[in-house]
Fold these 2 entries.
Entry 1:
Amino acid sequence: MQLSFDCPVGLLTRLEARYGEAHRRYHVWNHVLACFAARDLIAEASPATDLALLFHDAIYDPLAHDNEARSAELLVEEGRYANLDERWLAHARELVRATKHDALATSEDAGIVVDSDLSILGADAATFDAYEIAVRAEYAFVDDTVFSAGRARILEALLARPLLFATPRARTLWESRARRNLVRSHARWK
């Protein structure tokens, strides 16, 4: 992972520990690394997008609905502790909030971050299936009926979007395969 700014080692160490929490199966450090690999395919790096990718799932509680907001605030707290540029922190905070995925990203940088996060949707079938197994494992405490209904609603919302990806490069790379994966997944969970 090549960052566009000089990131203190301690910050990365603390982040890796968060992504290593026992309840995580998909939202782990390898997911962050995969987001950076995806970002490398679609855009140039910037400090704000890199910070957002590092922190976008720093707080992950499957039962919470405010993970993105809490992760964004943690980014600012940790960034200030590391004496990072306040402009980067303010911009990155908004980019992390965009990973709530409740709407298509509206800025170029938000599109880069969100598309990098969603790039798993456009992975080959085996990788996508492994992602789904890992997400299901993160919700192991939820019975199959409840999980299936919730997952189907999420997939339906994604499939209803005219576009899954905001950046032209991500659409070229992943849009059609992502739609196939989502249709296949929806058939499994509905």
Entry 2:
Amino acid sequence: MPTRDTPWPTGTPCWIDLTIADFDEAAKFYSTLFGWHVEPGAPEFGGYAVCTKDGRDVAGLGPRMDENQPLPGWITYLATDSLDATIAKIGEAGGTVPMEPMDVGDAGRMTLAMDPAGAGFGLWQANKMVGSAIFNEAGTLVWTENFSSDWERNKAFYGAVFGYSFGDMSSDEFKYATLDFDGRPCGGIGQIPGQPAQWKVYFGVADTDAAVSQVQELGGTLVDPPADTPYGRMAGVKDSQGHAFSLMSIRAA
């Protein structure tokens, strides 16, 4: 079981969270689908819940504070060892940081940012909470990727801010690359013309088809039917409140 107890290297996708309108419904959906333990968090943090699996942190669920608060979907957080330095690089590279950095108790510091194409993402500077403490297992985060209509510009942005190199996997039909550190991928970046820029999240499952059926039984919907790929059987779904995510089968090895 891959676990981590120390802060993730700068640029690594290290956390994901979701702001929802109906907390109880989301808690039921994700705990049933992924085996998470979900309880409302402390009032001083707005009831934000740190969801756990096998006793380790996997994701966050945050209740919407008012009905006018936007619901951006699953947000990917990238690790940083210096929030202020990374914020400065984001501005220099053409991104924006619309939210003032904030301390989250003694857990760490965070903010939200946007890349030049308009995809939102978070930044996390760990203190006592490293972020995802279990990963690449069924019911946990296994992959994240950035999509926009301006692949080259976003590659330049993320490379300048986080120091990625790129494992180009493009073909005549699509443009896509892995985000690499020391030759090892930690995420992906691709081009999808005509769609809003976004970060997508993938959760591991033991059986993609069975997980899709369970999503539907829980009130969610199928977006992209299950399909075999070299990296596992994948499907795109939405939860019972309409938030999109993807499923990816985990190899036994």
